[in-house]
Design brief:
By secondary structure, the protein is α/β, with parallel strands linked by helices. It is 40% helix and 18% strand. The radius of gyration is 21 Å and the shape is globular.
C-alpha cells in the first residue's frame, strides 16, 4: 500500500482541486463509502467545487441507515417487555420500523435508554440483576471491537443478564455488491478511514484487482477528501488500480491487531440483510458459539419476520448511489427529519439528513 503524506505534499483545498482540474480528461464516478465523509462533502460543498467531470456518489456508509426494519421491530418488541431495559445510541431512536420507532416505544412506557458505550449497558446490567439489559449493537467494523469487549467482559464476569442485539455490517462485501450490480456507476472508491484504522487494508487489494478500481483510504476533513479524490482520479487517468492510503496519520497497513483479535474471538462472519439493499453474503457479524448465551435473538426467541419496505421511500436507491437524496419525490415534503420515511433522513450519517440540513431549498 502506498502512503500519502498530506503534510509533505502540502497545498490547500483550492490547490489540490487545481491539480485535479489539470489531470482529469473524462468523466469519473467516485463513491465515498462513509456517511461521515458524505456529511463533510455536503457541508463544505466539496462536490460543487470539483470539476464537472468528477461525480461524487454517496454510498451505503451509514450503519444506522442499513439496519433492517426487522431488527428494529425486534428491538421495539424487546423494549415493550416489562423485564427488559433496551439500551441504544441516540441516533437509533427515530429510525422507523414497520409501524413505529423506539422513541414511540419509549413514549408508550418501554424502558429505552440512551447510552454512549456498550460498557455503560453492561454496567447497568450489573447494577440491576433483576432486569435483562439488551444493547442494540449497530455499526460497521469501527464499533465492533467495543461491542465485542462488552460481551467478552460480560461472560468473564458472569453477567448473565446482559445481551446484545447484533446488527453489525462489513464494508468490503458491500463494495463488492455495488461493483457487481448491472447498474453500477462507480469507477473508484474513497474508503472509510475509521474502518481501516481497525481493519487495515488487506481486504481491499483483491477488490481493487478483481474489479480494476482504485481504492484510496481517505479521512474526513475537506483537505483529506479532495486529496483522496485527486489520487483516485490520478490512478484512473493512468489506468492503475491499487490501494493507497491518504489517511496515513491514523491507518496502518495491518490495522489494529488487538481489536481485530477480539472481534475474531467474539464474532463470526454471517450473511446480513441491508435495509433498502437486500441480503449481501458474508456482510455481517454474529456472536460466535462460546458467546451465544448473550445473543438477544437466541435468548428471547425472536422471530425474523418478513417486512415490506415503504414503496414511497427511495432510500435503497440513495444507499446504492443510484440517485441523490433530493432526487427522491418525497424529499423535504413527505419525508423530513420530524416525519421520516426512511433511516437516511434521521441518522447522523444519513445522506438524506445531510442534504436536508445543507442543500434543502428555502
Amino acid at each position: 500500500m502506498k502512503y500519502i503524506d498530506e503534510y509533505r505534499e502540502g497545498g490547500t483545498v483550492d490547490t489540490v482541486i487545481e491539480r485535479i482540474e489539470r489531470i482529469v480528461t473524462r468523466p469519473w464516478g467516485l463513491m465515498e463509502i462513509c456517511g461521515g465523509q458524505t456529511h463533510s462533502i455536503i457541508r463544505f460543498g466539496i462536490d460543487e467545487l470539483l470539476p464537472d467531470r468528477i461525480s461524487l456518489i454517496h454510498g451505503p456508509g451509514c450503519p444506522v441507515c442499513v439496519t433492517p426494519i426487522g431488527l428494529i421491530d425486534q428491538a421495539i418488541e424487546l423494549a415493550s417487555r416489562p423485564d427488559v431495559v433496551l439500551c441504544s445510541f441516540g441516533d437509533m431512536l427515530r429510525v422507523p420500523g414497520s409501524d413505529r420507532d423506539l422513541f414511540s416505544a419509549k413514549a408508550a412506557g418501554g424502558d429505552v435508554r440512551i447510552v454512549y458505550s456498550p460498557m455503560d449497558a453492561l454496567a447497568l446490567a450489573q447494577r440491576n440483576p433483576e432486569k435483562k439489559v439488551v444493547f442494540f449493537a449497530v455499526g460497521f467494523e469501527t464499533t465492533a471491537p467495543a461491542n465485542a469487549m462488552a460481551v467478552y467482559q460480560a461472560q468473564k464476569q458472569g453477567v448473565a443478564n446482559f445481551f446484545i442485539l447484533v446488527s453489525h455490517v462489513l464494508v468490503p462485501p458491500a463494495m463488492e455488491a455495488i461493483l457487481s450490480s448491472p447498474d453500477n456507476r462507480v469507477d473508484g472508491f474513497l474508503a472509510a478511514g475509521h474502518v481501516c484504522t481497525i481493519m487495515g487494508e488487506s481486504e481491499y487489494h483483491s477488490i481493487a484487482e478483481r474489479f480494476k478500481v482504485p481504492i484510496v483510504i481517505t479521512g474526513f476533513e475537506p483537505l483529506d477528501l479532495v486529496q483522496g479524490v485527486y489520487h483516485c482520479v490520478k490512478q484512473l487517468e493512468e489506468d492503475r488500480h491499487v490501494v493507497e492510503n491518504q489517511y496515513a496519520r491514523s491507518v496502518r497497513s495491518e490495522g489494529n491487531a488487538t481489536a481485530r483479535e477480539l472481534m475474531d474471538r467474539v464474532f463470526v462472519v454471517t450473511d446480513r440483510r441491508w435495509r433498502g439493499i437486500g441480503e449481501i453474503p458474508n456482510s455481517g457479524l454474529a456472536l460466535s458459539s462460546p458467546y451465544q448465551a448473550h445473543d438477544a435473538v437466541r435468548h428471547f426467541k425472536l422471530e425474523d419476520k418478513p417486512v415490506i419496505e415503504d414503496a414511497e421511500c427511495l432510500a435503497g436507491s440513495v444507499l446504492r448511489g443510484l440517485i441523490k437524496p433530493d432526487e427522491c419525490p418525497a424529499f423535504g415534503h413527505r419525508c423530513t427529519p420530524e416525519r421520516p420515511l426512511g433511516a437516511p433522513m434521521v441518522s447522523n450519517e444519513g445522506a438524506c439528513a445531510a442534504y436536508y440540513r445543507h442543500r434543502r431549498n428555502p
